[in-house]
Each structure stands twice: as C-alpha cells, then as structure tokens.
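## retry 2 of 3
previous attempt timed out at serialization; input unchanged, resubmitting
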Amino acid sequence: MKFLDQRGELLRQGLLHVKGHSDAQLDRSPEERSEYLIAYGLGSRSNCIRSLQSVHEARSIYRWFGEADIRGFKENCYVVSKLMCINAIEQGVGWAAEHDFFWFLLSDQDDLLRWFGAIEPSKTWLSNALNPNDHLFRHYQMSLAVRGDWTALGDRAEQQLAKDPPKLKKCMVDQRFYLALSQGDKAGMVDALTELTSPAMAKKRNDQLEFGFTHFFIGTHATMYAKLAWRHGHQIEIDTPYIPREWLPIQPLDHYEDPYPFMREYRNDALPPPRSGRAGKTQVEPPSVSAARK
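## retry succeeded, writing output
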C-alpha cells in the first residue's frame, strides 16, 4: 500500500510537471516562440530546435498519462525524433545516445529509427564505445540492437559481463537483456526486465537528468528494451506498471504530421546521411538556406 501511495503521488507530480512544460511556448508572445525565431532566422537555430524538442517530449508524456491518447503520444514522439535528426544533420553528432532512442522507438516511425540507428561514434568517441569500462559501451549496444547486428551485440554483452566493471554494476542487467535479445531468449529477456522494473532498481535507474519527463511514470530503460524485443518479433509480457503495455505493439500511424514548416524541408525517407562530428559547429545548411544562396 505504501508503494501504491508513493507511486500515486509521483504520478500526480509528474502530470503537473509535464503539463507545465508542454505549455511552455504558449506563455510567450508569438515573436518570442521558437518556431517564429527559426522562421525568421533569429537567435540560435539549434537551441530553438532543442527548445521545441523539449516541449514535444513533455507533450508526448502528457498525451498518454494525462489524456490516454496513444495517437497524440506517438505523434509527439515522432516530432521529437525528427527534430533530433534535423539538429544532427545541421550541427553534426558525435554519437547516438541510448536514451534518445526512446522517442524513435515509441513513435513507430521506421525511417527515422533506421536513420538514427545508423549513426556511428565519431573518432572522438569511438574508443569509449569500444571500452567495456565506459558507459558509452552500453549506449552503442542500443544502436546494434536496432540494426539487428546480433553477433556484435552478443559478443559485446558477454565482454562487459565478463569485465563486470565496479562502477557499472547496476547496468549489468542491461547486458543480460542484450545478450538474451541477441540469442532470441525470451525467458532471459523477461528475467532481465523483471529485475530492471523492480521498485528499488527502477528508482535507482530512473534517477537521471535525461529522464526528466519520463521518470515519474515508467522505467525508461525497461520500456525501450521491451519495445526493442517487440520490434524484433519477441512479444514479451512483463507484469509491471513501469512498462505501459499499450506502447509495445508495433503499430505505425497512417500519417505523421510535421507541425513546423522547417521540418517539411526534410523528407523522412530521404534524409542526408548521418554526419559525425562535435555538435555546435554547423555542418550542413538547412535546405531553405542553401536554396537562397543559389
């Protein structure tokens, strides 16, 4: 009963939190909103895109937990995903963070997920991605899992499990999941996710800055991993409030809307190849800017 009371209060706090952030742009005058600044080339385009991304992250969570609107949830996950792609194309990207895959996986939009999953760590980050004592080693596992590169995924999982780095002990359950996924071992996947969604582990693993909108409601890692399993044909079932069952079936929307004109400059099925590099230095001009130069 104490757990249920605590969870109920956490959900209440979470709804207030995400509702406030989802309405953030509405509190500004039209000339101060990110979409206006982007349209007129004012301020930092990349920061404005990130601001919109944050708004739609909050809206996606509120659409489901506040309104039980699965379509609205997926639509906003899609918007977040495409905004990430646009910033990666225009600004460069050093590596694909595991937690960022949440929005791609839950949107069920295949083109963007494949694009993001194809990003390779840049030379700056490659040694980290290959080092089993480094957090980035786990992050790169997500990319391999999305691609279905089972040999590399399984070999790397065994490598980190054998190392068992003291500072990463709480993350070894992730490698047990990845190993089971690489082998098509449904029982092993269920065991790993059951451990990952235990109240004590969920509280420990959700306490991350990147999970500012999701930690009130779900086990973010566990939800991503369960969705991965479903994407690859393993319809696993976990009896836990930390993984919304309604999110797991692979059911793309019949149409995904680009709510901002600058998003429509990029076709989902023809995005430029992922570019490596440190974010912050413009790598590619937006199509509208390039056209204006000609």
